Structure formats: structure tokens, C-alpha cells
Amino acid sequence: MRLLADLHTHTLASGHAYSTATELSVAARRVGLELIAITDHGPACPGAPEQWYFWNLKVLPSIIDGVRILKGCEANPADSASGIDLPDTILEQLDFVAVGFHPETGFDQRDRARNTEALLRVMANPNVDMITHPGNDHEFPLELATVVDEAAARGVILELNDHTFAPTSCRASSNHREREFAEAAMAAGAPIAVNSDAHFANQVGHCEAALAVAEEIGLAEERIVNRTAESVLAHLLARRARPRLDHGGVWETGAGGVA
Q: Which superfamily, per CATH, for 5-248?
């Protein structure tokens, strides 16, 4: 199985990642990807950018060296009007909105009921496209069936996160739960994406561990949203308008300018 899109990557703007947007796109082209989503952490994460960073993502090219760039975020659940640490006025302008739990953002109590309630509110926001690493049961336990059923009902993507299966990952101790979420999502008909969660350019598009799990559980390629750029855009545009999808133009780094 070969995927041509990666919907979870980070630039150095996240505060604990180490590559630029251009470096991510060059790496994506090198491994044959058609599309990546740049999903830097929302403002509640330590070291993350402020709201204006996400508002100004419109200046990034929509295509770099032939790779489609979705300008997005990996926001955090929050006690706010949007249910997230970014306002709807910004979320609705982004090409792609992912949301996931992270340490030191207000949910460190391991309260399964509270976490589930917060995530249901997140998924009720029509601007939200994907829930990241839902199987992080060690830090942020969730009621699996409730979350999966809501994702299926609302067409929100549930992620099978490759980094969760890395030995160095803080989520490694509960990676069996990531697998259980994928199995449940598959059974419920919820959209699924398999992503790298790259924090350095050479990780972009590398989802070997997660793809191995996908094959073990019998997840068919046609069930994976990010199999191609076309399948990603078809899913996203069916859910809501993406008003800035083509803002920023086309950039060819070899030519040194905008086409």
C-alpha cells in the first residue's frame, strides 16, 4: 500500500519541530507525495505560534514544486466558543483543521469522561476535519465507541498515527489503543487517515509502522482518505468551502520565483 498524501506535518513554528515549510515540501516531492497538510500546533501548546500565524498562512504557496500544500493547524480542545484554542473566524479560513490532545493544554487529569465530552464538542464544530492520535490512552483516555460513532456520524477523520508506534514516542505504551481506534473506525465507517506526524523533514510521508497495522487489521486502501491528493480534496470540499485553498500561488524553488 502506498499513500500519496500526508495530513499531519509540523514546521519549526510548532516550537519543537525542526524544518521549514519549504523543506517539508521538498522532502514530500522526494518521496513522491502529491499533497501535504502543514498542521502546526495551536496556541495552547507550549512554544506554539499565536493566532496571527494561522491567519497569515494565506501567504504560503498553495503548491510548492508540484506538491499541494494544505495550510492548516493541529489545534487543541479548549473551553472556548469554538471548543478549540483557535476561533472559528480563523478555522473557517484554513484549508485543513486537525485537533488533538497535548500535554500542558488543560487536559492532563486523565479524566476519560471530560476528555470525551470535550472531543464531542470539537467534532460538532463543522470546521474540524480530523482528530489526531486518538489512541493516546496513557495520557488522554477516551470512550472509544462514543468518539468513533460521533466521527462516523459527522464525517470527521480519525487518524492512525505512525509516530504512535515509534519506540521513542511518549504514546508508545498505549499504541494498542491506536490500533483499536482504527479497527473501530473501520467497522463504523468513519473516515480514516494514516499520517506521519512528521516533526522533521525526513519523516514526511513515512508511515511504515502505521501502514503495517492497517494491513494487519484489513483496512482497505480505498477506505483511507489520504491515498491521493484527489481523494483528500474530494473529502474536504464535500464537507465545507475552503476559501483560501488556492491563495499564495505556485512556487518552484528551482526557478527561484513564483510561476
A: Metal-dependent hydrolases (3.20.20.140)
